[in-house]
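Quick one, tokens below. Sequence please?
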């Protein structure tokens, strides 16, 4: 399972290409918003005759869509660029060209510094200017080393091609849809407000049109994305400003769209309408990713999260009172500057109180340019490791406990892909757990009724019910 903004490595899906077409290989790091952007960039390039490939060796254009959230995430990019440089050199000897581009949050944060550190790179494009990618590529091919990291005045979503039906089909029955970008919260540990800029919400009409196209292409589940998704406040068709709750009620009306999710939410932006949507909309899955980062009020204040541990717990109680089926997932940072043993114990206590179905946890990583980097009391790496280990053991125990409570339950399962065994299919439970089921008479995209029979460490097993 992926957190909204957890680090991971993914490649674009395989597309069979005819000879002589140019091919683009996109490697995606970071959060789901990058996954969405990679698809949009691939779509934009297909207009120029590029087809996506997952075979690096055959690519004419390689794009690394990068993440800057933690130091490790950013450093991975430079080691990958080292490998690509060697490949580009070998290619050049054979008289073949290979264009290398860096996109995403490292591109935005480091800009032309990337060209200096990695001379093989031909173009650097920040997340706000992906619609200019085809033009930038033409310039790069003309010998220019292109850096595009200005915040564009025009709306990138309006200029990026909408997902095509055939491509949507190939991508499967679940899809991401970015509704909001950027962040105005300025948590003191976080680079996102700098790499993605200030909050921008897409208008309702644009989102509904994109959702309808996806459904038309066979998508049955849409996850709305935003760095701060529940801060979304787009203009409705009536000219007034809508909140995320209103948007979900509207999207739930789309025929054929069976499931809705949204991620990542900030505790400060969970308004009543959004909470009520969890009660009223059967399509809205009972799962909420609501990061808290720490259970210590002192640390929450230093992080500029602008709520207390008690307020977070009260919020969760309020949502659970309205939707008892709701499972909570979260993100945690251990070893933020100034974190004492007591602060850490407060985090452990909060976890015990809330009970998480799933969570992502990280050691604090110093990000240059953020206020946290300048704070006193940086915590020793060994202490961070020790705390992370204890925290993860507790979270893992809770995840297993939650999975065990699912055994015996009857649920609807959206079948997403073939399983490992013949006749087996894999879907996701309402709570985002992968579920394996023998379903010989069903196909991908069906929603079937199943009973959970067993729980492994990372997935569930089920039998189909007639
Ligand atoms: N917008 C979301 C998450 C943003 S980033 C929120 O407000 O919660 C995804 C996760 O990465 C964060 O929740 C946090 O747990 C982690 N993260 C962000 N910056 C980090 C840093 N400097 N060091 C370690 N983890 C960090
Ligand atoms: Fe980063 Fe905080 Fe914004 Fe989340 S809310 S993206 S942690 S600044
Ligand atoms: Fe990483 Fe940027 Fe997402 S920093 S987590 S790719 S918004």
């Amino acid at each position: 399972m992926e957190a909204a903004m957890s680090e991971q490595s993914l490649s674009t899906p395989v597309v069979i290409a005819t000879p002589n077409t140019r091919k683009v290989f996109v490697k995606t790091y970071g959060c789901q918003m990058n996954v969405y952007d990679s698809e949009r960039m691939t779509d934009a390039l297909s207009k120029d005759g590029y087809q996506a490939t997952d075979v690096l060796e055959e690519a004419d254009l390689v794009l690394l869509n990068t993440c800057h959230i933690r130091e490790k995430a950013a450093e991975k990019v430079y080691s990958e660029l080292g490998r690509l440089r060697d490949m580009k050199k070998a290619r050049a000897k054979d008289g073949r060209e290979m264009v290398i581009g860096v996109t995403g949050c490292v591109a935005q944060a480091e800009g032309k510094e990337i060209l200096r550190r990695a001379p093989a790179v031909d173009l650097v494009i920040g997340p706000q200017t992906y619609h200019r990618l085809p033009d930038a590529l033409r310039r790069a091919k003309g010998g220019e080393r292109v850096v595009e990291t200005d915040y564009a005045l025009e709306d990138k979503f309006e200029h990026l091609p909408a997902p095509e039906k055939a491509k949507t089909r190939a991508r499967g029955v679940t899809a991401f849809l970015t509704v909001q970008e950027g962040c105005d919260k300025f948590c003191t540990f976080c680079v996102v407000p700098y790499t993605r800029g200030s909050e921008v919400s897409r208008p309702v009409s644009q989102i509904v049109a994109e959702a309808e196209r996806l459904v038309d292409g066979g998508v049955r589940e849409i996850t709305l994305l935003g760095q701060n998704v529940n801060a979304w406040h787009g203009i409705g068709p009536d000219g007034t400003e809508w909140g995320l709750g209103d948007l979900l009620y509207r999207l739930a009306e789309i025929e054929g769209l069976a499931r809705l999710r949204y991620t990542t939410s900030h505790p400060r932006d969970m308004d009543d309408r959004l909470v009520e949507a969890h009660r009223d909309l059967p399509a809205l899955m009972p799962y909420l990713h609501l990061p808290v980062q720490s259970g210590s009020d002192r640390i929450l204040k230093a992080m500029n999260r602008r709520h207390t541990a008690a307020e977070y717990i009260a919020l969760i109680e309020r949502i659970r009172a309205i939707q008892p089926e709701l499972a909570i997932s979260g993100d945690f940072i251990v070893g933020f500057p100034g974190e004492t043993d007591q602060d850490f114990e407060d985090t452990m206590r909060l976890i015990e109180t809330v009970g998480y179905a799933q969570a992502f946890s990280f050691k604090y990583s110093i990000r240059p340019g953020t206020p946290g980097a300048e704070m006193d009391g940086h915590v020793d790496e060994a202490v961070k490791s020790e705390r992370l280990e204890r925290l993860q053991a507790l979270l893992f125990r809770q995840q297993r406990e939650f999975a065990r409570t699912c055994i015996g339950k009857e649920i609807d399962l959206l079948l997403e892909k073939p399983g490992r065994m013949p006749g087996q299919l894999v879907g996701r439970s309402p709570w985002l757990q992968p579920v394996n089921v023998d379903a010989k008479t069903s196909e991908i995209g069906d929603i079937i009724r199943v009973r959970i029979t067993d729980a492994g460490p990372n997935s569930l097993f089920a039998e189909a019910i007639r």
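Residues 183, 185-187, 190, 192-193, 227-228, 266 surround iron/sulfur cluster (ligand 2) (CB under 6 Å). Residues 229 and 264 are 6 Å apart (CA to CA).
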